[in-house]
Known about the structure:
Elements: H1 2-14, H2 23-68, H3 74-105, H4 109-151
Helix pairs in contact: 2-3, 3-4
Amino acid sequence: MEMLLMGTSLAADAVGETGTVVAGSAGHLVDSTLELLLPVLKAVGAFVILWGVFCAAVRLVVMEIKLLRGREYQQDAALIRQHLGYYLLLGLSFIIALDVVETLLHPSWEELGILAGLVILRTVMGFGLQMEMREIKQELEEQSAVQHHGDE
């Protein structure tokens, strides 16, 4: 009988008088689901960064082979930097999302400080990458204009 009362008490905690799930129970379900997603966000962020590094390394090897054959490489170097920066920012965005979820689940000043640091880092990197992309675009346009004038 005691076991039956305990089970009824637990059920009453989970279901309100109208038969709807109590907010505390739903909140626990959301928290549990988010906890399960944390390793996925971490893995995706790390994978994106590592994939970008791998792709940049492959492109670097190809660029060095071109250099050994006496070909121009400045355009390739600029594109490698641009692509690597893109992957770093994208991976960092996933890591920031991870930190936002962790901060929501376990709010603390330490978590908030880590989150603020990551957001500042991502903002600075994004700004620097945008400036670099503009410079690369301008360099490529200038090279194209010089080659176009040389063809005439």
